[in-house]
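sry for the spam today, last one i promise. struct tokens for design, 205 residues
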């Protein structure tokens, strides 16, 4: 089944990022459906991790866990990165389109799933003295995914190392700008709704 092959191809991407991302874009070895599947699994893992990680390594209190907030946070970061990256690379002669970016970034989160899922079970049996192993692998998942995001951007847009660094920095800045504009927009809309509601109530009374 093609979908299963596209999921399995994620293992090639994370161990051979240059050829992997190249074939994702040029030979269509992956798909948006598979990429979104990885993102969906990571979203569920984020919430599951907060609720089941051993208390020695869990800084989150169960009563503070909000599934909706977790889902929206991860989804927003993923979408914002892809949109901001596309906006920037469109102006910087990038060769990747919106779909290419969504696919590459979706495959990039696979190490987070492969490492952090077994770490949840491991955290239940580790002592405080053995916690170093937990934190080392935890940091490894972030570093590995970060490198894949970097290499995915480089290969997808055919950028040099320096240009990729600049693009990633500007993408983060772009995400902040988009969030600011979004919050400003919703604030204005909220004030308008309040204004018209007040006028309606005054006329009614």
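last one done:
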């Amino acid at each position: 089944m093609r979908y299963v092959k596209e999921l399995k191809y994620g293992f090639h991407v994370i161990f051979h990022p240059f050829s992997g991302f190249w074939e994702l874009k040029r030979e269509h070895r992956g798909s948006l459906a598979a990429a979104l599947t990885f993102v969906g699994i990571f979203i569920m893992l984020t919430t599951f991790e907060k609720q089941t990680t051993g208390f020695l390594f869990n800084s989150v209190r169960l009563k503070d866990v909000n599934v909706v907030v977790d889902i929206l946070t991860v989804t927003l970061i993923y979408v914002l990165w892809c949109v901001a990256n596309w906006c920037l690379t469109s102006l910087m002669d990038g060769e990747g389109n919106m779909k290419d970016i969504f696919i590459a970034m979706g495959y990039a989160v696979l190490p987070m799933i492969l490492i952090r899922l077994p770490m949840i079970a491991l955290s239940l049996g580790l002592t405080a003295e053995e916690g170093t192993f937990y934190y080392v692998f935890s940091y490894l998942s972030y570093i590995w995914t970060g490198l894949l995001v970097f290499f995915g951007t480089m290969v997808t847009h055919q950028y040099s190392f320096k240009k990729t660094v600049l693009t990633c920095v500007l993408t983060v800045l772009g995400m902040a700008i988009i969030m600011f504009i979004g919050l400003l927009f919703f604030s204005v809309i909220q004030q308008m709704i309040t204004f018209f509601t007040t006028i309606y109530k005054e006329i009614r009374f």
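The chain has a mean pLDDT of 89. ok im logging off now
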